Amino acid sequence: MNTIQNASIIGGAIAGMSAAIELRKRGVAVDLVEIDAQWRVYGAGITVSGAALRAFKALGIIQQVLDQGWCSDGAWTSGGRKCTLNLWAKTDH
Ligand SMILES: Cc1cc2nc3c(=O)[nH]c(=O)nc-3n(C[C@H](O)[C@H](O)[C@H](O)COP(=O)(O)OP(=O)(O)OC[C@H]3O[C@@H](n4cnc5c(N)ncnc54)[C@H](O)[C@@H]3O)c2cc1C
Predict the structure, then answer these.
(1) Do 78 and 54 lie in a common domain?
(2) Whole-prediction pTM value?
(3) Which ligand 1 atom is the nearest neighbour of the CA of 11?
């Protein structure tokens, strides 16, 4: 049984929404408040690296993230060498 049954989260951006998703999964009733009634975003793209992608997978929202973005399993160095990354290696548990 949870010792915490209710939580208030101030701010509905990535940290607040992630906390809300995880707390709800654990049976905590969440009230989330966001000061911006329009829920605006800056409009700039962001780079999301492996650790954040693994966190999105743990939250259960990785498919939505992949659907909205562009994902690569590697990167090219300035010397033209490809570094392959295994973004999912630590998530298959
Ligand atoms: C120009 C720019 C580019 C960036 N690019 C990247 C990138 O490429 N990759 C990356 O990983 N990170 C990037 N970052 C950093 C990233 O945006 C932040 O680390 C991340 O947004 C932090 O998330 P957060 O939920 O903690 O806070 P925030 O995103 O700051 O969200 C805080 C939320 O709380 C709300 N709020 C504030 N005060 C109140 C209040 N009193 N009551 C209710 N709600 C309130 C705000 O409206 C906001 O929605 C970038 C940041 C900037 C500014």
Answers:
(1) yes
(2) 0.85
(3) 34
